[in-house]
Structure to design on (236 residues):
């Protein structure tokens, strides 16, 4: 599983260097697919419930599951890239949101807040805590900065399947749900909106956007809970 996750981290690192104004999200997707195949691995999302691509590329007010297209990135955009890999029986899953050139102060704050919320959530993923301690920490972090967390989509267990129990919401009261145990592997993935938390699904059946058209960011890591803390598997 660590190997699958390492490939995810490597693709994200490579794709990061390509994100500049003028490139299309299809080109980014092609890079990711060939990188993953060269490693002897398989894109986890392509074909999953009919999803057509390797990467979810979600621009600006798109929250998640944006489909790569011929639209060119432009200065001031923010782009979320979500990638899953299947390798030797196991899955890895991670996401980042990147600025395209210079972005607004509001957008910068949103990216920092979302990445910060992920980090704070991960810190709560330790034995002795309850699952919703992760959720509550993420929600508090996000709301203290004046942003909102998406309610309709959640993080998840991951391992031999892309989505396993338990669900990992990014909101809720602390001290609820199952106990966090050694050996658990979780994909923690706050989706944060600059405006309200409500989202809608576009007619393509995949792209989720903010209802109020505000910007949205998404950061995700796959982690493994150990005896003493946890390991972020999708980090280089
Ligand atoms: N990281 C997203 C998730 O955990 C990926 C969606 S997979 C897709 O659900 F194939 F459905 F796009
Ligand atoms: Co995920």
């Amino acid at each position: 599983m660590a190997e699958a996750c390492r490939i995810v981290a490597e693709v994200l690192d490579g794709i990061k260097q390509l994100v500049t104004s003028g490139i299309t999200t299809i080109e980014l997707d092609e890079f990711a697919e060939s990188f993953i195949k060269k490693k002897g691995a398989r894109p986890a999302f392509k074909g999953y419930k009919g999803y057509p691509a390797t990467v979810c590329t979600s621009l600006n007010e798109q929250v998640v599951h944006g489909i790569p297209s011929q639209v060119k990135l432009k200065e001031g955009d923010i782009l979320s890239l979500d990638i899953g890999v299947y390798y030797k029986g196991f899955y890895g899953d991670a996401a980042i949101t990147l600025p395209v050139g210079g972005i607004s102060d509001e957008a910068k704050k949103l990216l920092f807040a979302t990445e910060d919320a992920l980090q704070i959530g991960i810190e709560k993923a330790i034995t002795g805590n309850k699952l919703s301690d992760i959720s509550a920490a993420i929600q508090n972090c996000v709301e203290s900065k004046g942003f909102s967390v998406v309610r309709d989509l959640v993080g998840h267990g991951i391992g031999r399947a892309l989505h396993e129990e338990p669900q990992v919401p990014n909101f809720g009261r602390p001290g609820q749900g199952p106990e966090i145990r050694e050996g658990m592997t979780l994909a923690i993935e706050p989706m944060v909106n600059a405006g309200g938390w409500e989202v809608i699904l576009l007619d393509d059946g995949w792209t989720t956007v903010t209802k109020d058209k505000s910007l949205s960011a998404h950061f995700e890591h796959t982690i493994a809970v150990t005896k003493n803390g946890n390991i972020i598997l999708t980090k280089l």
In short: The first strand starts at residue 42 and ends at 43. The two ends are 14 Å apart (CA to CA).
